[in-house]
Amino acid sequence: MGTLTEEIFSRRLGWDVHAGEIVVAPVDYAMAHDVTGPLAIEAFRQLQVPLWDPERVILVFDHILPANTVAAAGLHKVVRDFAAEYGVTHVFQEGICHQLMVEKGFIRPGGIVVGADSHSTTYGALGCFAAGFGSTDIAVTFATGRTWFRVPETIRINLRGALPPGIFPKDLALQVIRRLGAEGANYLAVEWGGEAVEAMSVDERLTLANLTVDFGGKAGLCEPDEQTRIYLGDAEVVDLHPVAPEYRSVLEVDAETLEPQIACPPAIDNVQDLSTVEGTQLDEVFVGSCANGRIEDLAIVAGYFEGRQVHPHTRTIVVPASKQIYMEALARGFIQTFMEAGALVMNAGCGPCLGRQHGVLGPGERALSTSNRNYAGRMGSPQAEIYLANPAVAAASALAGAIADPRSFK
Amino acid sequence: MMGRIFKFGDGISTDAIIPGRYNVTTDASALGKACFIEARPDFATSVKPGDVIVGGRNFGCGSSREHAPMAIKATGIQAVVGRSFARIFYRNAINIGLPVIQCDAIYDAVEDGGPIVVDVRSGRIDVNGKMFRGETPGPVAEAIMEAGTLIDLIKSRGWAAIEEVS
Questions:
Q1: What CA–CA distance (Å, rounded) separates B99 from B80?
Q2: Is 0.95 topped by the overall pTM?
Q3: Of A38, A233, A315, B112, which residue is most buried, by most CB within 10 angstroms?
């Protein structure tokens, strides 16, 4: 009985779990990456105990890949040495941790997964309870296979209607953030439902679940369904639904009347309709990230770039979220399209999103990104400005050299 | 303990506390030197042990980087008092032994640079003789604070320490 979150915890723990309870629960997997991993490893070593399970610890190099400084290489070495010492076999350097967690089959509906990265909420798209933690919490999970949760209450968000042309899950998420504010779901779980979500592919749902943390959500879940079964490629997907749930609140969003939504600097909840900021000149466009770096996103961008050139004043950077996506994009001709259009294509990983490696912004520069964070200084200079949008807006804006409406391009 | 207030606004992100270009290290003192390096460049050079950060709403939002509370703690800041905290930052701060106190009412009563007396154990705050009390942090946070850090708690007592207060 209860919300998706309560159902998952009840099944896992074997008793009726209700929101508000504090529980110590076993997890399926614990993930850390090249920046949060070294701190987790230091904290784990202080505990002086064996590793819980070398096959359930996932280590990913993605935030600074390949290492761009001696300091970054040093952090990577800490992680590699730990993996070798403890026999951790799931060590990846082929894309963003969150995309790999899903692609590599670590995420199952009904599961519980923790990650040392805030966007670990992404896995909720498959009906898994997944939350982000800091390094010390993850260290304790490395040691024990468990962590503690205050089982959260849930906000139910029903996305109504069908998505009109030029409108994508990113716009729905930004509309929700516009209405609830940057801490609207703090300490709460979010259930994403309604016809628009039922009609979405898993790739699209990953975008919704990903952005859940950007309005404070602890986890963002979708009910597993036929799409989930197709995506996971097996029929053994657990039957999991909310049962007589009591929600903290319910939000209805009408997809059909929506304009493209743009998160304007310097906060995720400074969301405007595209028409308000159309024409704003851009120095950089970034297509990628755990929010919108998947094959469907790249397909949208390639559709706009085909036979066209990006604006000469707007450097355009494309970063597929994983090697698998990169190789599919190669096979489908997208990479050639991007390069012929004048875009730079970088190796799979976090890319310019966090301003630590390539694509860093200079003072006074302005970027539009398909990622999920636009804080001052996020992508480089604190005097740079970051706009967040869906992949079609990013593509149209790269071509125009300014924020542009994709619906006028086709 | 008496300290001086460093007042910040709403939505202070972990990117503002320690930008992604400065957390490529696990060294606490290096993190402390870069604390608020872009958002408030004079912070790390002027802060003294015992000083207090008073933040607005959603303090510590964004990235889960534990480098953020580590950086603040390394500067000698005694406590962070916020109108509200982002969940991961709050949990990280408690885990590493940086006192965080949620208190909405204090925000409008304090000025940047003014004096403040915080008792982190009781959550009592004195601003120019005006008394405030922070919200109770909850049983798990209290158990961790009592032990010092989450590592201290788990190392000494294991999960039983948390299971018995749940």
A1: 6
A2: yes
A3: A38
Q: What's CA B73's distance to the chain center, in Å? A: 7
Contacts of A316 (CB under 8 A, 6+ apart): A284, A285, A286, A287, A310, A341, A342, A343, A344, A398
- What CATH architecture does domain B2-135 belong to? Alpha-Beta Barrel (3.20)
- The yes-or-no answer to whether A4-254 and A263-408 have a common fold is yes
**Whether ipTM exceeds 0.90:** yes
B166 close to A (CB below 8 A): yes
- What is the reported pLDDT for A410? 62
Beta carbons of A132 and B84 less than 8 Å apart = no
A81 touches chain B (CB under 8 A): no
What fold is seen in the domain A4-254?
Aconitase; domain 3 (3.30.499)
Q: Of A116, A25, A126, A7, nearest to A63 (Cα)?
A: A116
- In chain B, what are the domain boundaries? 2-135
Is the CB of A146 less than 8 angstroms away from the CB of B23? no
Q: What's the pLDDT at B121?
A: 87
The stretch A176-193 carries a mean pLDDT of: 98
Q: Is the pLDDT of residue A83 over 70?
A: yes
Rounded Cα distance, A287 and A371, in Å: 8
Substitution target in A13, A52, A183, A350 with the highest count of B β-carbons within 10 Å is A183
Q: Would you list the domain boundaries of chain A?
A: 4-254, 263-408
Name the closest residue on chain B to residue A38, using Cα atoms: B26
